[in-house]
Each structure stands twice: as structure tokens, then as C-alpha cells.
């Protein structure tokens, strides 16, 4: 039994055999029991995990030593936590103890008789075999693992053997391991200390040069080690770590990062051969990139940047500064979101380092100081943690996103602290007492009047929830539109058919009043600036506050002066011309008002002047000269960001022309269509006198019928402000289409077009995707022999593209063979095109020759040569057949026969006697026989004797047909050949055939290709059949003709990384999930087999192919992969991104391989040959150098330890991805419990791992100051992992994306865009990439969403980038300039809620910091979208929430204020303006209908239309109809149609548009309009924005009615029912005097809107009208409505819980939000007030008492309902009789009252229905007011009554909505029609959707 040295009494003895109680749960946690113990170690025992891993590793060799390792782990665990108090520790120790008891009995000694000698012997053998003998033969990753095992073994050995008894050999090995283990740890990309087989990447001269540079520590002070010995640092990063205390993992990470950056940048500047030193220019360039923001910050704050260095040590000093910055950044955790805070830290530390470097010489001796090293975590504890704590405490103030933004400081507030001089007052080292560290909850000092908490002020900006932000941010736009509207109304009012109305005195005077309005609007802006920024005033400088106050005073001055001077002017009126003629002649004779206007306009004139000279404005804004700052102070306050964003003159002219044209069109339309037609009716109405009303009029003496005028004009004004969005859609469509056409988009869009242009594809490929130096390019122009090499290179790439599609099962084996190109065409005299181009050419040529009657060769050959592909096919077939026949023959004489026949053919052709010497009629017979022969050659039973004889017979038949049936003189040829040979043997001719030839891959390919050329006919015209394969082929071919930079060689390309954030989404579907059936009996696998039948068939063909490697593989695993690659899974994303690496390796091969290798083929090279093996290793090394892929699996560590089955499956799948893809890296947050000062605390680490042999291997571990999740989750997930990325570019990829091999091949070209300068010195900082939406082929909804998204990511972003220059970052897959963004806050923002749409803020940030964003469409990445109605709505809600928060943000404010006028318009209408316009569209309907409600119920509309003085009532009615067109919003579909037309043809676009309308696309888009409007408006008013997980599932399923009701009740159903009541009231009370057809024309769009909002969720719900499901839905709905709520009851289980959740936003809204809710609820009282006067029971009385009596009735009804409710609760259980009597009395009372009202008061049935319309809205208003006043009502105890009333209303609303669904469900054809509507795309592809929905499976079992 093993003993522990000195630890015998620790822990339970192994002889204890107590039963394990929790063991089962531990074992179930993983499938593999051998690894479960090492991977499920509790976080508090993490240090024993390596010991258990070693035990698992060595167990196959020596189970006893493995047992000793586990026993040591158990003892160590017991020492660490003797009481088992940590989470999961007790269960783990129990499990481990049980296993040890079992192993003690079962394990035996192998090398010795006892444990001490056993482990010592094993340790010695292990070290000898693996370290002494293996260190020079094993790879670095193997050596790292060996040293790790050896270290653990020695630790175990020391516990088994007392140190005095360890022999010398063992100690010698242990010492060697201890010395070298740090140098032999697991590495990421560069094995820097490799001593074994040197990897190719370490042989690269650029890597060696970079290493040499950072290892130059000459002149740096030495430091003392832990043993008080002096030693120099190994490299500059270690030296920095020693003096500042950086973590070991951070240093190792940034060391590799810096080396790769230097190597990649340096190699582009020189020949990679023969250089040893790093170029100084490389370091200077890197330094400029990294410190550009730092220098700008220093200049802004007037600091001197600490970057100087002595000339003799310049390179070393520069590298020290770069290294210091990277180390700070690498350990800064959440502070990375605060770039200027990092600048501050660097500034202080650089100053400290400068003192060490250049101020450390002792005055007397001249020696350098010896540095006392700081602890490893000193920087973390002293710098990062204090700053993080400020962040964490402030973030906690947001109360999980519920608190107002103005009450806590976010990342931006804290970062902007470092924009001010206050930061210079912070002490260094940080002491935690500075102003920055005072938290919002810190109390006031005691000497203050009270001791209440004082909030820290916001910095520079306050995010207040109000719509006024839209005016404040875009005030210039609103002022322009308001003044234009005022001017147009004035002109229209005075227009009497004259075009010169503007020159009229009165008109001119009136129009000039716009300056009075302008003064008021500017005053409003000044007031908003003060009010909305008030909470930030304490953080502002005095001159900033002074500016606000002066702006307010000046605006107030003009607000007084303008109206006063205007009112006193124009005593001697004059026209416009006269004014200009006399201007300045005698100022006293002119109106003072004009001079005021002239002075008032001076700032605008100056701004216009600077607008025309953008370079001047840009220079002034960027200037830090005090004189310039003073001049700019009034116009634009100095701010660190947003300075000098003005574009160059050419860009400015483009977007200015765009907007001027648009605005002219918009204003002309508004004037002639919206405003002018209303002028005459308005004048008529204002001149009418209305003496009586239909209700009690509170203001009967108001003149000019002003209420009617407002009701008519209000919707028109709203449309006026909104319709610019529609004009933008029209202009963007036109300009985007033209731009796309000039970019060559859509030039190749069909297979026919590919065929037509395929001859030019290889040359286009060579021109764009094959790198050439200038000399090589010139040589290629002169030398035609290189054409074959170019075509060979193209064929390598093309074939890999085709094979990738085959591996993805998009094409079949036959289609693959038809599409492949031979690698080498050197053996054939013509170019060998893919067989799909040559298909049917040979059969056609045979038919042509057979039927050719003419006897002249020239005519036949002329016909053949008119078709190039036919000519190529004939030549290739002839030469290939000749080569195959000759190669098959063994006998030389027989070979001569073939050669003689061929010479006869060639001679006859030369002499033009071919048709005379050969019989064409024999060719069909020859073709048939060749078909059989080639089929035999392709079979794989070459050893079979009957097969051999069959082949010989067929071969002889072929020769016989040629000799006898085709050749006229065939026998003579045969005789001539055999005359010269001895023929004594009697054997048959042509019977010795070399069958072994067919084992050669190249010969088999020739045979297959020849067979295809001879036999394939018309069927190849449609190859490939798969639509996705066709799309990819056409897009790739088309992209080769688009404008793109030429590809550099791989060695010279920019290096890049990919970062994918992952949380808990699906990685790979499990077998159970694939086969799990839904309620209709449909599994995912069955569903996909029906949706993708061709791909499933191709999959079966692939795995059943014996030539491929799938025979021994797990079939279930292959099916899981096939399904997962068609879903939105992480495995699909990883597979796609790994195409980048495959493409890079192929590109390296093409760059470096010789001609022989290229002609031989990429896949055919012999890796056993040393040259080709080295070539392959070099390619892999360069791929490692250029490409890194990091997946940030935030909770991977938690999933590894979790006992949840799904978590364990995700862990296993992610691990499998790492094991499959060696270059994949996974970063995660590791949460551990550690004992700190006697207390258990959670400690967080950023960890990077890679795949090892069987498990993951840890590469870097960096301790964090705390939990990194303090803001929005996704950006912080990206932020923690971004330190592990590499390269100069970073592509952000979501885990619902895909990639394609052929697109990955173009990545080199795209990255070259970063090196292109735009308009001077500007280079792009973000490259926009187009996306292909791959989820659009299943249902109509998926198709709508796909088209909408496609138009946005193509034509939409195309025009945003050029000409509008307002493209930002709209999500993935954009490519970032990595160095630019890592020094400016990262690739997203993370403040809670305000940065909900985290992606776009990186675009805002980039633009504000002078970045340049472009968009490129010659490359694309796949992307999945939501496909179900509810999923889509959740996505739209999330985006609308995000836009609502953007509206409140400082980024939008700064961009809106600092863009020039036209760029500001572009920005507004393409971001928040789109959502505001959507809301205004909905608001217009409300305003229109409430205006009509006022006119109808008051009787004003009737009296106006029936007034005898009004002769043209129809003109007035028609004036009301103009706005109805704009609510359809169909014009927003225009970009979609244009993009389809551009890329797929105009006819296709029109067809798709018509089909979309037939499939009710308008209903869908109208419904989503409501989603956008609701969530955008609610977010701004009340908040409540949050991330909404959409699920990303793809199986079609039925949503229950209750689910739909919960999701759409407030956003659509309530609003739809309100509009329905409005339309009914408008119709009922106005039909008697109104033209009914005109009513329908006016309100059609509104009825359409109502129908869409109420019924779209059911129309687009699969099986929404199936009777059985409708019955089930009703049962579920009733259960949900009746269930009681409470704590822990989820909203989907109880109406009460859902109702309380729906009011969540009102709990946290401010008082302004509550008041606004109450005010808006008052609109429902208008129904009651208007309708009660229309009741016949009122007898026409207009007395206010009628309205008062209606309230008495309302309150009585509510009281009765309350009595019934109380009676049911009080008497319902114990006093049943009393309850029944009470109900009877109430019923009798109700009947009595109704009888009295009918008999005495003349109540009618119509009055009852009218009363319902009157009182139902009132009750709803009371509920809304009660919800806003919830705290008060809860206090007085009537909240339960409100809830019961709400339940009744919800039940009624649900019933109203549900009834039409029930009625339609009665008719079976409705369900069938709906299915066809929803799944038209699938039907058109012949898919079995009805089978899927009905659950009727095929009886045949599927594989």
C-alpha cells in the first residue's frame, strides 16, 4: 500500500470501504470514465487536475503508478479542503476514494515488488526514453507533454519515497526537468524554446529576426532572482514583467503576439531570403500604429509623449515601449473598453520605465542598478484591480439594466474622465483616494449639511429617456424641414395660379417670418442642451458651462429681437428685387428686421463657407492651437473624439448631389401633392360658421373651426416629416443599382452565362488571385508557355472548390467528375476544360459526321471548329484514347498498330482525305463499344479472370471495328505492321493487357474523364442541379471579373485572426435530438431529409463509396455532422472558417511549388518525398503565421465541470472540434474557488486552450481582477478573448455564420484593401463584407427575411459606404484593422443596456476616431437568420430596442452634431431615423383616425360637408385621402427588388415580387412595422431593452394561441383592436352623409394594417387553421387564463405572472414616463364623451349632465362587478345558497333596470351596442391609468380589483381574436391553402411539406 511521506495521518485511509453515495452522479457526468475524474475536478481543487490527467495518460503503461498518482491527488485534495466545504468537493472526494479502493485491489506491480521502487523505476525509464532519447526526435508539443508528465511523476514520487532515499539518477533527471520545464510548456503558435525537431515556422527568417530583436537585452539592468542571484532577462518582455509585475501568462501571450506582428510586417518590406536583422522601419511603423491614439491623447491634453529614446538604442527602446503597451493591454481586462485610461496607465509606467532605462547610472561608480523584481501579480493588484473595482461598483448601480442611465456612470463616462486634465492629478502609484475612485454611493463629508449619498456626475453627456434627443441630435434637419414647411404653406396660401408669387410683397414678407421660427427653434435647442446635460455639469469645465449659458442667452436675445423687429417692419413694403437693388443704399430706410436677419445668418454663412472647404474645417477641428480652439469654441466645443471627420471634396460632392436631388424631389412632391391641395378646402372650412354641435362643446366660440383644421393638417404634417424615408428608399435603390452595375455585379448569374464566359475565367483568376511580381507579369505577357502553368494553378483551386462542394454533399460523384478540371493538360495538345462544358459535344459531332453527305473534309472541319468546345473535346478524346490504348498494351508490335492507325488519321486530315479514307458510318458502333470498354476499366475487380477475359475481348472488338468498319485500308495497315515481325507464335493478337495500370490514380481520372466526354449528353447542361451549388459557382465566377486588389503572395499578405463569441448555443446535434419527434411525429433528421433530399442522397453516396475513408467511421456521428452542417451551429461555423487555413495552404503550394508539382496536382504530391514534405510543412507554417481562429466559449470551463447532460455534450463537442482542427483555439472564463486570507473567494481567469491528444491543453492563463461580466455579455465575451488573437486584421464572425472554400481563397485580396489609401492618407479601418443568407429556402417567412436581409447587406450597405459615407459596423462578418481598434476601445462597446446593439457602436467609435469604413462585394460569408414568425419578431424587437437605446447615446449625439448637414441626413435616415419614421407611420394612422373621430362625433364633419355654401364637398373629401398611400410602406421593398434584378435578372425580380405579394409579404412587413414602432417607442419612454434569444431553430412547428397572445398582445393586438374600434365608429357615425367608396379608399390601408396586426401571427403559424390544433389551443388558452400567479410561476404558465411581467417597464420608469402613460390613456375617454350624446336615449340633449350620468352608469357597472367578485370569493365555498340568491337578485335587478330603460326612456338595441363602443375603451383607460399608479393602488388595496378587470378584458380580447381563427378552422381547404402559402418555395422544389406537417413518415427506413 502506498504511503505518503509525512502525510500518513492525512485523510481517510484507503482501507475504508464505506459505500459511495454520490458516485453515480459523478460518473454520469461524462461518457468516458477514464477522463471523468480529471475533467470534473471542483474549481477549488483545480491544482490536482494535472495529476489526474497524468494518471489517465500513463494508465495503459503502468496501472500501479497511475493508482499512486490518483492517491497523491486525493491526499492533496484532502489537505486543500479537509472539511470538504467547497462546492462539489465532498462528492468528488467520495468518488475518487471509491475508485482508489477498487484500484488498490486490482492493480499489480510491473517493474518492482513495492510502490517506492515501482514508481522510481518507472520514472527513470520514462525520462530515459522520452527526455534523453526523445528530445531531439519528438515534436515540441510532444516534448511539452513529456515534461508535464515528468514533473507530476516526480511530485508523486517525493510523496512515496523519502527524499533521502531517492537515488542519484532519479535526482539527476528531476533536476534536468526542473531546469527545462518552463521552456517546454504547451505553446500556441510559436514553440520558442523547441530543442527537438525544429518546426518549419521557427526556421522562417522573419521569425528569427523578430526573436533576435526582442532578445536584445544589452544595456538593460539586471535583476535579482529568488535565490538572490543576479541575472539578466531573457528578453525585453521578461524584463518588463520583472520591473512592473506582469503575469507570466500575459508575458508569454504578448511575447508571441509581438513576434508575429514584427515578423509579418517585416517580411513585406524585403526579400525573405538572406536577411537576419529586423528593419527599423518595421518597428517604426508598428510603433506609429500602436501609439497613434496615445500621441493624439498627449497632444489633446498638452502632455509630452514618453516615447523618446537615444539614437544608439532606438530599436530596443521602441520595442520596450511597444512591449509595455501590449503587456498593459493584455492584462487590462474590462479596462480595455477605456482606451484613454490605458493611455494614462502607459504614460505613467513609460515615465517610470524611462527612469529605469536612462536615469539608472550611479553617480560615483557608473554601474547600473540591480532591480528588485515585483511580484507576478503586482500590476494586477496595484493598477488593474482598483480601476476595475470602480467599474464594477458603477456597473452595479444599473440594477441589472433597470436603473436610469443618468444615475450611474458607464464605460464611456469613466473613460472620458481621462479626456480632461483631472486625470493628471491622479497619484501614481494609484492610491484609491483620488476623485476618480469616489463611487456614486459614497456619502458626503461630515461637514456638509446632511449626510445623504451624493451621485458622481456623468461625464460630458447624460443619457436621458426622452424623444427630445432626436431633436437635439439632429436639430439642423428638423429646423430645415420645419422652415421649409412654413415657407411652402405660406407660398401655397397666397398662390393664385401665378408662378412669380414669391416676388409679391406680401408673400415675401410672410415668408421672411421663417427667421422668427428659426430663432424659436434655436432657443429650444439651447434649452435642451442645458436641461439634458444638467446632470453632467459638475464634470464640465467652467468654459464649457459658460458656452452653454451664453448660447442660451444669445438664443433668448434672438427670440425676443426677431418677433419684435418683424412686427415693426415693412411700413413701406417692397418686393424682393427692389430690396436687393437698394440694399445698403440707405440703411435707415430699410427695415431693422432685415439687418437682424443678416447678422443672424453670419454663423450660417461661415459654416457654409467651411463646408465648401472640408480640408480647412478638418484642419481647424484637429488643431490643438489655443487660437484655433478659441475660434472654434462657439461653433463646436472641444472634444477628444469627433474632430475632423469631414470627408474629401469628391466624396462631399457625391453625397451632397444625392441629397440635394432628393430634397428637391421631396419638397416638390410635398408642395404639389400634400400641401397645395389642402389650401382651398382649409380656407373654405375656416370661413364657415358652425353654430351647433352633436355633443357638449366646451369651446363653442373658437373661430375658424380650428379643431377641424388641426384634424385635417396633423396627419399631413406627420407624413411630410416621414416621407423623406420613402424618398431615401427610392433614391438609394436607383443609385445602389447603378453602382452595383458598374461594379460588375450580376454579370454571370446563370449556368449558361458561366459556360459562355468560362474560357476567360482562368485568365481572370490569374489576373486577380495569382500573385505575380512586376517582372513575372511582364514575362507572362511575352511568354505564352506560362499559360499552361496559369491554367494548372487555376485547376488546383477550381478542383478544391468542387471537392469542397462534394464533401458538403451539394453535388454528386457524377457532378463532381463533370466539374473537375485535369491538373495537367501537358499530355494533350489542347486546353482540357471541365466536362460539363464539353458535355454532348462528342455525341453531336458523331451525329454530324455520320449524317454528313458532303465529301469535302474542309466543310466538316469548318463546322466543328465554329464551336471551340467541340473542337477541344474531339482533339482531347482522340489523344486520350490513343494514350490509354497504347499504355494498356504490353507487346511493342501491337503498340505499333495503334501508332500506325493514328498516323493514318493524322496524314488523311493533313491531306484533306479523311472522309475518303475513313467510313463515318462506323463511328456510332465504335462509340458504343468504347462506352462498354471504359465502363470495364472503371470497375474494381481487376484480379477476376472473367473480368480480364471480358476486357480483352472488348479491346479486340474495338481494334476490329477500327480496322474493318472505320478504316478503308485497315487490313493493309495490319499487314504492314506484322510483315516486319516474326510471327511464329500462334497466339491471338491484343490479348496481353497491362491491367495494373488502372491502379494509378491519374490513369483512372483519364478514363473517367474520357467516359464522360463520350457518353454524357444534354443532362450536363443543368449540372449542378443543387441551387446552392449553382449560386456559389455563379457568384465565384462573377466575382473574378469584379474590381479587387491583386493578391499578394502568402508570405507578403496581412496576417489576420477570426474571433467568434459563443455562449450556450448548439455545437453539434446529438443522436437523441436528431431522432426526437415533435407533437406531429416529426424528427429533425426526417425534416431535413425531406427539405434537402438531393443533399441526403449525395451524403449516402459519399459514405457508401469504398474509395473514400468513411468505411470505419461511426455512421451516427456522420449523420450528426450532416444535420448540424445544415443548421445554425458552432460546428458549421468552425468548418467554414477553417476553409481559410485550407485555402492558405493551397496558396502556399501554388506560390512555392515547382512546375512539376503544380502539373502533378495538389492532392497527388508524394508526401514521402522530402522536397514535397518540406513544401507541405512550409505551407502549414505560413498558414500558422498568417491565420488564427479563436472561439470565445465563455462558459466552456463551467460546461466541463457541469453535471447537466447538455453542458457535458457541448463540452465534448467543442473538445472534438479542437481535436479535429489543430489550429482552432478556445478561450474561456475559468471560475475558481480559492482561499484568500482564510475566506473562500471566486477567482476568474482568461484561459486559452488547444486540442491535445485526447483532451485540451492549456496554453495561457491570465488572472482577472474580478468577474468580467459587468455589462453586456457578448462584447465582454469578445473582450476577454481578443488578447489571444493575432495579426493586423480581425474578422468578427457570429456562430450562426458559414464560409466557403472559394470565398476563403479571396481573403488575401480583401486584406490588401487595408493598404489602399483613400483620398490622401486615409486607409480603411473596417472592411465591410457582404453576406449570403442561407436560411431562405424553406418557408415563405424565411424567404421574406432572407430577401430583406440580403438587400440590406448588399444594396443597402453599398450605398451607405459610397456615396453616403455613413457605413458603420452592422454585425459580422466585417474585418477590423486590429491594431487601430485594440488601441481605441476594441471591436464593440459593453455598457449595460445603452450598448445593447454592441456591434454598431464599434462603427460609431471608429468613425468618431477618424476611421474609414468601406464595403466590398466580391467576397461573401454565409449567415443564418431566424425563420419562424416569433423568432423573427424577437429579432426585430431586439434591433428596435437597440435603436431606441442608440437614440439616447452620446455616440449618435456626437455624430449627428459633428457631421456636415448632408452626411447627417444620411446618418439619420439609415439608423435611428428609420425606426422613428416607422413609429411616425403608425402614429399617422392614430392621428388621422382620432381627428376623424373628433370631427364625426362632434358633428363638425357633417355640418361642413352639408353646408350649402360649400359646393365642392368631394374636393374636400379627396383632400383627406392623400396620406393613405404612404402607410402601405410597399416602397420599402424597392431595394429588395432592385438587388434581385441586379444579381438574378429583371424578369426574376418582377416574378419574385409578384409571388411575394401573393404570399402576403405585405402582411408580414406591415406586421413587423408594428413590432419596430412598439419596441422603439417603449424603449425611449420607459426602457426595458434587453437581449432576446431567438433560438435559431429551423424545424417548422405550430405555436400555440397562448404563446402568440403573450408575445403580441401589447405590441399588436391591443393597438389593432383600438384601430378597429376607431374605424367602426368612423364608419357608423359618418356613413349617412359620406361617399362610401371614398371612405373605403381613405381607410383601406388602415383596414389592411388592422387585419395584419390582428391575424398575421395566425396566418404565418404552421397548422394555424387545423381544427384539432385549434381545439388544443383553446384548451391551453383557458388553462393559462385561469391559472393563478405567484412567486416562481413562469409567465407561460399563468396569465397573472405574464400580466405582472408585462408591466415590468412601468416599475422602473421615471415620473415623466408615468405621467405620459396617463395622458396617453385619456384618449380612450373621447369615445364615451362623444358616443353618449349620439344615443337615442339622450333625446338630443347636449347638457354636460348627460356625460356625468354616463360616468354614474360606468361606476355602477364596475361596482356590480366588484360585488359579484367579492360574493363569489366570500360565499362561493361555504354559502352556496347565499351566492346563488345574490346572483339571482343581481340578475332580476339588471332585467328590471333594462325594462324600465326600454319602456320609459326609449332605450334601443342600437344604443346598447353603441354603449359597448363607448364604455369598453373607458374601462381600458382606467386599467392603463391604474397600472401607471400601481404603487398608490396597492397601498389602498384595490389592486386585485384592477387585476380581475384586466383579466376580463384580456379574455374578451382573446375571444375576439380567436373567433375568426375558429371559423376558418372549420373549413379544411383553409389549412391546405395556408400550407401552400407558407411553403411555396418548398412546393416549387417538389418537397413533401404536407407530409412533414401531417407527420406521415415514409415507411422505408432511412440510413
What does this structure look like?
The protein is mainly alpha-helical and 1903 residues long. Helices cover 60% and strands 4% of the residues. The protein has 84 helices and 12 strands. The chain has a 10-stranded mixed β-sheet with strand order 7-6-5-4-3-8-11-10-12-9, with helices on both faces. The chain has a two-stranded antiparallel sheet with strand order 1-2. Residues 1-32, 361-366, 443-453, 573-585, 982-986, 1522-1528 and 1896-1903 have low confidence and may be disordered.
Q: Into which percentage range does the β-strand content fall?
A: under 5%
Characterize the largest beta sheet: strand count, sense, and whether it forms a barrel: 10 strands, mixed
Briefly note the structural class of the backbone. mainly alpha
Spatial order of the strands forming the largest sheet: 7-6-5-4-3-8-11-10-12-9
Kindly provide the radius of gyration, computed on alpha-carbon positions and rounded to a whole number of angstroms. 41 Å
Distance between the termini: 53 Å
| Average pLDDT taken over every residue | 84
- Shape type: globular
Number of helices: 84
**Uncertain stretches:** 1-32, 361-366, 443-453, 573-585, 982-986, 1522-1528, 1896-1903
List keywords for this structure.
mainly alpha; two-stranded antiparallel ribbon; single chain; 1903 residues
Topology, element by element:
Layout: H1 23-28, H2 33-39, H3 49-58, H4 63-80, H5 89-106, H6 115-132, H7 140-160, H8 168-180, H9 200-203, H10 205-214, E1 223-224, E2 230-231, H11 236-244, H12 248-267, H13 280-301, H14 314-331, H15 339-358, H16 378-396, H17 411-416, H18 468-473, H19 475-494, H20 505-511, H21 514-532, H22 542-567, H23 576-582, H24 592-612, H25 614-622, H26 626-632, H27 649-687, H28 706-722, H29 724-742, H30 751-757, H31 761-769, H32 774-782, H33 786-807, H34 813-819, H35 835-838, H36 841-850, H37 857-865, H38 868-888, H39 892-910, H40 914-917, H41 923-938, H42 945-966, H43 970-979, H44 1001-1015, H45 1027-1039, E3 1056-1062, H46 1071-1075, H47 1084-1091, H48 1093-1103, H49 1115-1124, H50 1130-1152, H51 1155-1160, H52 1170-1186, E4 1187-1193, H53 1196-1201, H54 1205-1220, E5 1224-1236, E6 1239-1251, E7 1256-1263, H55 1273-1281, E8 1289-1292, E9 1297-1298, H56 1301-1304, H57 1307-1312, E10 1326-1333, H58 1340-1361, E11 1375-1377, H59 1378-1382, H60 1398-1408, E12 1413-1423, H61 1429-1448, H62 1450-1458, H63 1461-1470, H64 1472-1498, H65 1500-1505, H66 1513-1519, H67 1534-1544, H68 1546-1558, ...
Parallel strand pairs: 3-4, 3-8, 4-5, 10-12
Antiparallel strand pairs: 1-2, 5-6, 6-7, 8-11, 9-12, 10-11
Helix pairs in contact: 2-3, 3-4, 3-7, 4-5, 6-7, 7-8, 10-12, 11-14, 12-13, 12-14, 13-14, 14-15, 19-21, 19-27, 21-22, 22-24, 27-28, 27-29, 27-63, 28-64, 29-58, 29-67, 31-33, 38-39, 38-44, 39-43, 41-42, 41-44, 42-43, 50-52, 58-67, 60-62, 61-69, 62-63, 63-64, 64-69, 64-70, 67-68, 69-71, 70-71
